[in-house]
Design goal:
The protein is an alpha+beta fold. The chain is built from 15 helices and 22 strands. The chain binds adenosine-5'-diphosphate. Adenosine-5'-diphosphate binds next to β8, β12 and β13.
Length: 448
């Protein structure tokens, strides 16, 4: 087992990894920007190294500085968290070239899944059902029209290099397609430095259902059921739950097995998430994330496993500590993402947190790097915490979420807490009756 690992991230996910490492008797190294000198992950790690100025390009995305930090501190492995360099194949490769273990999949698997067209092709070849669409990148409008005619409107144009819900445009007819095609390409170029786009059938009322998979890199893999992440704003998840309210055990077993078999076939190592849109009993692959997801705690809650511990174990060459038969669902879990944002526009709201009080008690987990007196810097993601509740069943989890939200105090900055309080009063949320468009429509009705 490793003696020391470095966490190439910040915020709640850095704490998440430091905690797992500490329980395993592994020393942790935090890296931080100058703006994060007072951040909780720096305080909580055994050691810390400043790797650059505030801008993430010069710090959390600075591969050379992170590798130097490993060499200075003697860290044998790097956990990338999510975001930043977590799906950067060149970083995984550079680490391995320096004899440092990347706690995640191989550079090759990251590369395959990072290019969405290659990912879809690979998924289809591995027996995973995919969304109907263009078989490859679409270079000009004539081809785009041809694809749209064959799959039927509405269609969605997506960036091959996409991520974070950016660069996606929907078109209901040929006239809209012309504009959408052009803007999607220029947005993709600006956001990802690559203007290649592809086209998919736009599903009208799907749910976002994703399957957690885990492999040991030696051809063994399991699935840990699904998460329903349909409640989204601008294609970004805000509320996630497991198990999915509409997924039956038979459906779960079927799609779960397809995903586990697929990743076993490629000897995938570590945690991965196969994302689907689900409509009328059918699953359609959209992408695979080759990393730990923000919403992984709901899966941990219902299966009683520590996914980060597992990631570290398999990265060190140890076997997974469970088999498929040993994985059993226990109850229901919900996560809400608490952002420092001002409603109704969700504008970022950094600043000083005068008082922070985390909810607690039975079945409540708060993953957050906040503390009273902390100043949330303006340079990074606005996620300041994740509140995760676990109950015997969905109604109990909802009641617990309501109770826990009432205990949470984040004084000094605006947060998305009032959004969740309002959502919990909605019959559709109480009944689990929502799809990927529900939240946008609801926000439109609430705030116009
Ligand atoms: P990103 O990598 O940018 O997050 P995804 O491919 O994972 O992009 O899609 C993000 C979200 O966009 C999905 O959860 C869904 O809400 C919406 N979406 C993507 N593809 C489609 C589609 N073909 N039809 C309808 N909605 C879609």
């Amino acid at each position: 087992m490793f003696e020391k690992i470095l966490i190439a991230n910040r915020g709640e996910i850095a704490l998440r990894v430091i905690r797992a490492a500490r329980e395993m008797g592994i020393k942790s190294v935090a890296v931080h920007s100058t703006a994060d000198a007072d951040a909780m992950h720096v305080r909580m790690a055994d050691e810390s190294v400043c790797i650059g100025p505030a801008s993430s390009t010069d710090s959390y995305l600075n591969k050379a500085a992170i590798i130097s930090a490993c060499e200075i501190t003697g860290a044998q492995a790097v956990h990338p968290g999510y975001g930043f360099l977590s799906e950067n194949a060149a970083f995984a490769q550079a680490l391995s070239d320096h004899g440092i273990v990347f706690i995640g999949p191989t550079a090759e698997h990251i590369r395959i899944m990072g290019d969405k067209i290659t990912a879809k092709e690979t998924a289809a070849a591995l027996g995973i059902p995919v969304v109907p669409g263009s078989p490859s990148g679409v270079a000009d409008f004539e081809t785009a029209i041809g694809v749209a005619a064959s799959i039927g409107f509405p269609v969605i144009i997506k960036a091959t290099a996409g991520g974070g819900g950016r660069g996606m445009k929907v078109a209901k007819n040929a006239a809209e397609l012309e504009v959408a095609f052009r803007t999607a390409r220029s947005e993709a170029k600006a956001a990802f430095g690559n203007d290649e786009v592809y086209i998919e059938k736009y599903l009208q009322k799907p749910r976002h259902i994703e399957i957690q998979v885990f492999g040991d890199g030696k051809g063994n893999a399991v699935h840990l059921g699904e998460r329903d992440c349909s409640l989204q704003r601008r294609h970004q998840k805000v509320f996630e739950e497991a198990p999915g309210p509409v997924i039956t055990p038979a459906l779960r077993d079927k799609i779960g097995k397809i995903c586990a078999d697929a990743v076993a076939k490629i000897s995938y190592i570590g945690a991965g998430t196969v994302e689907f849109l689900y409509e009328d009993g059918e699953f359609f692959f959209i992408e695979m994330n080759t990393r730990l997801q923000v919403e992984h705690p709901v899966t941990e809650a219902i299966f009683g496993v520590d996914l980060v511990r597992e990631q570290i174990r398999v990265a060190a060459g140890l076997p997974m500590s469970f088999t498929q038969d040993e994985l059993e669902i226990n109850g229901h879990a919900i996560e809400v993402r608490i952002n420092a944002e001002k409603l109704p526009n969700f504008s970022p709201c950094p600043g000083k947190v005068r008082m922070f009080h985390a909810p607690g008690g039975y079945g409540v987990r708060m993953d957050s790097a906040l503390y009273s007196g902390y100043s949330i810097p303006p340079y990074y993601d606005s996620l300041i915490g994740k509140l995760i509740v676990h109950g015997r069943d969905r109604p109990e989890a909802l009641a617990r979420l309501h109770r826990a939200l009432g205990e949470l105090v984040v004084d000094g900055v605006d947060t998305t807490v009032p959004l969740f309080a309002a959502l919990l009063a909605e019959p559709d949320i109480q009944n689990g009756d929502y799809n990927i468009h529900w939240l946008e429509k609801w926000l439109e009705r609430q705030f116009g």
